[in-house]
Design a protein that fits this description.
single chain, about 240 residues, alpha/beta, Rossmann fold, six-stranded mixed β-sheet, four-stranded parallel β-sheet, about 30% helix, globular
Length: about 240
């Protein structure tokens, strides 16, 4: 989303609302309520895509339940920024934000995000959150998400943090937990609509993958990028 790198994906996110000028709420909890991140969101989602934008800060403020409900449940689109997934999920659960986001989801609100903002919708996610606390000595961890999609997710599947590649560590995590994993490259997204899904990318070579235990090995299968929606059940099983 930053600097318009994922503009084709962002445009599709806005189109999914079905509204000419949707109300788009940005939640930057994982980036420690970064003002710069919020300004970048405004530039793209308001300036480029024509949304009515708002931000929900949750760390140095303690919004009332009524304020949280009004902010979250009145939005057509909710976008969650990247950063420290562990800190974000802990804060959300303390304030009840996760429950309100699930309510919004059940009402048809479009939920989107990048990195931590992708992990949060899944049951669990492969996270570099510990790098925020111990930058010189850390390991990837499994962070519990909201469980709207019953899978273990890995954003930045083709990337790395502080020189530590995510793909190989994610394969080990899938083996350890015997989980169905979904790896998502940078500049790629999975769109979930009414029980179906499709993969979209805005960079050649970027893709998404099923990662799963196959006997004693861990297999990686690329998910075909086709326009037609396929049942989510086919994504979560092999």
């Amino acid at each position: 989303m930053r600097e318009g790198e994922t503009l084709p994906i962002d445009r599709e996110v806005v189109e999914l609302t079905g509204r000419a000028r949707p109300k788009a709420l940005f939640i930057p909890t994982a980036s420690y309520d970064s003002v710069e991140y919020w300004e970048g969101f405004q530039k793209i989602y308001c300036g480029e895509l024509g949304c009515e934008t708002a931000v929900l800060y949750l760390l140095n403020l303690a919004p009332s339940e009524a304020e949280l409900e009004e902010s979250i449940l009145s939005s057509d689109l909710i976008y969650v920024g990247g950063g420290n997934t562990l800190k974000m999920m802990r804060r959300w659960r303390k304030l009840g934000v996760d429950r309100l986001l699930e309510q919004a989801y059940n009402r048809g609100t479009v939920l989107a995000g990048v990195s931590a903002g992708a992990i949060c919708w899944f049951s669990y996610g492969h996270s570099d959150s510990m790098a925020f606390y111990h930058p010189d000595d850390w390991s990837y961890i499994r962070v519990k998400g909201m469980g709207l999609i019953d899978s273990l997710a890995c954003p930045h599947f083709d990337g790395e943090t502080a020189g530590v590649k995510r793909k190989q560590d994610f394969l080990r995590m899938v083996r350890r937990h015997r989980a169905m994993g979904i790896g998502i490259d940078n500049h790629c997204a999975i769109v979930f609509v009414d029980g179906g899904f499709r993969v979209i990318a805005c960079r050649p070579g970027a893709g998404a993958y099923q990662v799963y235990k196959d006997g004693q090995e861990v297999a990686v299968r690329e998910i075909a990028q086709i326009q037609e929606l396929r049942p989510v059940s086919t994504l979560l099983q092999v």
